[in-house]
Amino acid sequence: MISGHLFPSRKQLLSYAIYPTSTLAFRVTALRRLLPVPTELMFQADAYLAGLIVFVAAVVALREPLAVYRIHGKNLFGGQQTGALKTKLELRMNTRKAIHDRVAEWLSSNSYDVESEPISSYLAQWKFAQACDRFQIEEPDRWTYFRHLWREARVYGELRSPRHRLATYANALAGLVGGYQRQNTPTGADLSWT
Question: How confident is the prediction along the chain (194 residues), in pLDDT tens digits per residue?
């Protein structure tokens, strides 16, 4: 759990997790800088606001739970994925793309360079999650899968121990040799960043 002004620290931005609405509270003065929420994101307004708040205010993480969060079967993000998996993944990918694009748009329009560090790595979280969902729909070729794993290892390497970094790069090389293998676990339960 991290607190404080996270930007411009790359490590802190990459450590920041976006939590669901019931766990968020915002100062009105900070929120005003982010409003209005784009109409296409009314369904995921919390992700948009939580994704941008780190650029306008300090954040505070509390260890003590103040609410109970119920994950129901119709959640688009988080929890076990049931039902028409391909349809749900496609909807989730469309929603995540809209979040990424609107967050990047807000950053650009407020004089942040989305192509430079640490913002490009911060935005990459949505791209990595997109790729994981896309791989569930259409299996990637070995080279695509290797590049995905290698980029992810490069972006998040500083958050990992030396042994974990080594294992992550070895996993990328194994992906090049062995290709992509669909997991027998629910899709995206630990890959969603929103």
Answer: 788 999 999 999 999 988 877 788 899 999 999 999 999 998 889 999 999 999 999 999 888 888 776 666 666 666 555 556 888 889 989 999 999 999 999 999 999 999 999 999 999 999 999 999 999 899 999 999 999 999 999 999 999 999 999 999 999 999 999 999 865 434 444 433 33
Question: Which tokens hold the place of 137?
Answer: 């729909």
Q: Where are the domains of the chain?
A: 10-138
β-bridge partners, 4: 59
Task: Give the Cβ contact number of residue 34 at 10 Å.
Answer: 21
Angle, vertex CA 41, rays to CA 38 and CA 44, nearest 5: 140
